[in-house]
Structures are given as structure tokens and as C-alpha cells.
Amino acid sequence: xxxxxxxEKPFAAVAVDGIRKVVEDAGYELALLEKYTSxxxxxxxxxxxxxxxxxxxxxxxxxxxxxxxxxIVVRAGAGYDNVDLEAASAAGVxxxxxxxxxxxxxxxxxxxMAVMAARNxxxxxxxxxxxxxxxxxxAFGQVGRNVARIAAGFGMEVSAFDPYCPAEVMTEAGVKPxxxxxxxxxxxxxxxxxIPATPQTKGSIGYxxxxxxxxxxxxxxxxxxxxIDEAGLDRALADRTDLKYVADVAPACAAELEQKYPGRVxxxxxxxxxxxxxxxxxxxxxxxxxxxxxxxxxxxRFRVN
Length: 305
Ligand code: 3PG
Fold this sequence. Notes:
By secondary structure, this protein is of the alpha/beta class. The chain has twelve helices and twelve strands. It has helices at about 15-25, 40-45, 60-65, 85-90, 105-120, 140-155, 165-170, 180-185, 205-210, 230-240, 255-260, 275-295; strands spanning about 1-5, 30-35, 50-55, 70-75, 95, 135-140, 155-160, 175, 190-195, 220, 245, 265.
């Protein structure tokens, strides 16, 4: 059996070593496709793969069709909007993610970006502190919970809106439950986005929500660029010159925003929330273990399709 690790943005070498060990100890073969630059390379590489481990790599219907032996795809990470679940299901391919494995890494970056925005992107001008400021979390999943834990250390007042999470889970974590997304944006100087990209959430954060933020508002996006209505964001930044937008997922109009709003927007050059040795090891090895558990024992605990 062949397990292909296809990562346009590679894991740390130490994580690849760990994945190799899990795969080879199970008696399977590991194939690596790193830093590929065209979808055609992935189509070639999957032709003989029984299992596929990916990150944000796109698994399209074409990829599924090019992989006649494929039995399982594990997205080493949380969001699986890059995998065509319908095509996978139709071909009898199991799709899994590795929830929680890279969430601390993303959460640390969120607080890093919050500090950067509060200190005027380190431009040398006088900024402000996070202590005593309000932080609203849009969703209280694994990343949101880690952000809350770290933000408490900064002395921030944390609240969250998440219709899928019981209020007690939030209160036990010292987080105030909020009833609506409107109240979350209206009442928090900092808002951090942790919702997945789904047909329902795409383009759902736009002008009205962003301009409802208090004076000096900072919107932090470490989730997916697709959840933002970019035209609305642009208008909000134009109308409210006190607002900042910092994101680990650059919008399609990144260059335009950087040029129009210098010092008020920041985008990482490549999504790097989960780009730490620890997150790579955790998510990569979890993915390898899940592949082995499925191929060998039929266990599909983290199945999402
Ligand atoms: C995730 O969904 O797990 C994060 O966005 C990380 O994505 P990455 O593996 O492409 O860095």
C-alpha cells in the first residue's frame, strides 16, 4: 500500500520523519510530493496512491478520478473546504481531518497579530495594550478555545458567539457567551474569526458587521479569506479610518488594500498559522496514524464525509 504525502507547503522535516516512521512501521510505502507547482504533478502522483495526506492542497474531482486505488484522504489540519467531499464520497473515498492538532499554533499567531495591530504594525508610533480590552471570538472551536486561554493571560475580556457550542462550555473556560454575531462585532474592539468556509459562511462578514465595531476596532482573520465580503471590507476600511484588518489568509484584493490603507492592514505572504514544527508534527503524525488505523483496521473516527 502506498501513502502519498502531497504538500504544496511542506511540513517541517522532523514531521515528515515522524510520518515516515508511522507509515513504514505499518508495512506501507511512503511517497512524498512537496512544493509542487502545478495540479498536473498531483494528478500524476496520486495515480498509484492508496492513501493521501494533504494540507490546504486542493483535492478536486479530477484528483479523485486520477486516483483509482485511493481509499482515504486525510487533511492534516482542521479545515477541509479544499476537499471535494461529494466526489470523494461518490468514489467511496473516506475523508478525515485532524481536529485540534494545529490549533495552538494558529492561536499563538492570532495573539501575535493582535499585538502587532495594537502596536501600529511595529512602525515606531505609540500604540496601545491588550490588557483590559475586549476580544470577541466568532466561533468557539479548538482554535477559539486556545485563543481564549492565551488572551486571558494578556488580561483581555473574552466573549464568544457560537450557535453550535453550549454556553456552559464557554463559561467554564471563563468566556462570556454572546447571543448574536451582531452583538459580538458591536461590543468588542478585537474580533477574531474562527468559522469554517461553508456555503453559509462565505462572504458573510462585510460592511455592516465590520463598521459596527467600536472605535479602534481590529478584525483578525486566521480562518479563511472566503468568509469575508471583500468589497464590504474595502468600503469599511475607507469609511472608518480607525479600523484595522490583520489576516493570515490574504484576501484576493490584498495588494489593493495594502496600497490604499498602509499601516492598517497586514497579510502573511503564505498561510502560516499552522506553520510550526509542533503543529506539523502533531497534525502530520495524527494524519499518518489515522491512515494506518483505516487501512489496517477500518477505523474512521475522524471521517467528515
Ligand atoms: C487548517 O485548516 O488546519 C489551517 O488553516 C492550516 O492549514 P495549512 O495546513 O495549509 O497550514
